[in-house]
Design goal:
Elements lengths: L1 H44 L3 E6 H15 L3 H27 L9 E9 L7 H14 L5 E8 L4 H16 L4 E10 L1 H6 L4 E4 L4 E3 L11 H6 L24 H25 L5 H4 L4 E3 H6 L5 E2 L2 H6 L5 E9 L4 H22 L7
Helix pairs in contact: 4-5
Length: 357
């Protein structure tokens, strides 16, 4: 009898194990399908999206709301009635034009507003190139572009590419204005000087036309711990300075030569963009505040981006352009960490250190 019971137990365990295996297989299959769906969705969304905001309408609504708020109750009721009637007539006219196949042209030239808040690696250039491409597909000769720029600089190749993207507007003879409210230094100024006009706030930080690089060396520490480092290169100057190996005076000299060559390229670029500038006077790596920058010819006018846009609202249609890349799930976590580091570096620089380049 006990033998029969034991056989039954074995069969039950076997069937239960087979059942669990089936469940696990189904769960894994569902997970695989879910991952495939997510990947396909992310691939479709990888290109990101372009967001267009009619800033003229926003400012107009703000002005109307403020005007209404200053009226008494009776006047507000009359104003609301008149406004509803006006909106109804405008909507009816637009519908009639659309039905007739007519373009809804307001007869005003357009001002396209782009924002560039640069980090050390100038990663924002990916969005900038999309925004500029979008503008170039529709811009007319009478239109213009304003870039609200904020950057203390960063890697040379990143900001060189960002400046080249702005150069595309200049090559197409589309008037470009750069507005600096806080800082456009080093690589940030490399971008700004491409513009036909630079407007900066009175205490905005401008300039820092220089190049800086630093690298720690742990060779003496490692020698003290009896740790040898071997570095093999093909090419005399494949590696000039190293983190762990022993640096030579020849390598240091070559490293300084490379910095000076980069600085010369930087100065040449600024001189080409702003030929009236005394480049030797301003290319010392120093930075200036807005009013000082105006005296030195680094900018063309004093003012904030808000004043600049408000002055264009009456005669122009002001449109904000922003390209936003959809991030993958992992990038959302790593991206937030990167942004935190950038913010810390920005604060460190703002406390008196030189901008990175």
């Amino acid at each position: 009898m006990s033998g029969v019971i034991e056989v039954v137990r074995v069969e039950l365990l076997s069937e239960y194990g087979l059942f669990l295996a089936k469940i696990a297989t189904v769960v894994v299959a569902i997970a695989v399908v879910a991952v495939l769906i997510v990947n396909l969705t992310q691939r479709k969304r990888q290109r990101g999206e372009l967001r267009v905001t009619r800033l003229s309408d926003q400012y107009k609504e703000m002005r109307e709301e403020m005007s209404a708020a200053l009226l008494d109750d009776h006047q507000q009721k009359q104003w609301q009635k008149a406004r509803k009637k006006k909106l109804k007539l405008e909507a009816k006219a637009a519908k009639a034009k659309a039905k007739a196949g007519e373009a809804d042209e307001k007869g005003k030239s357009r001002v396209y507003v782009l924002d560039f808040k640069g980090s050390m690696d100038a990663g924002e250039v990916n969005a900038l190139r999309e925004e500029i491409t979008a503008v170039l597909t529709v811009a007319k000769p009478q239109d213009q572009v304003i870039v609200r720029l904020e950057s203390p600089g960063g890697v040379v190749h990143g900001y060189g590419l960002a400046a080249s993207q702005l150069q595309r507007l200049r090559d197409r003879q589309i008037p470009l204005t750069v507005a600096v409210d806080k800082v456009a230094a080093s690589g940030g100024y490399m971008m700004a000087c491409v513009a036909d006009k630079i407007v900066a706030a009175p205490f905005a930080i401008i300039g820092s036309i220089g190049v800086v690089a630093q690298i720690p060396n742990f060779n003496r520490f490692l020698k003290g711990k009896e740790i040898d480092i071997e570095l093999h290169t093909a090419g005399q100057f494949k590696r000039t300075l190293t983190l762990l190996g022993e640096n030579t005076e020849e390598g240091r000299q070559k490293f300084r030569e490379s910095l000076n060559e980069t600085h010369d390229l930087f100065k040449g670029f600024v001189s080409q963009m702003r030929p009236g500038l005394d480049i030797e006077k301003v290319a010392t790596g120093e930075h200036w505040y807005g009013t000082q920058a105006l005296e030195n010819g680094l900018i063309d006018a004093i003012g904030t981006s808000d004043e600049l846009l408000l002055g264009l609202l009456e005669d122009h249609e002001v449109i904000g352009i922003r390209y936003q890349q959809r991030k993958k799930l992992m990038e959302r976590f790593t991206g937030s960490a990167t942004e935190s580091i950038d913010h810390l570096l920005m604060r460190w620089w703002q406390r008196g250190q030189k901008p990175l380049m």
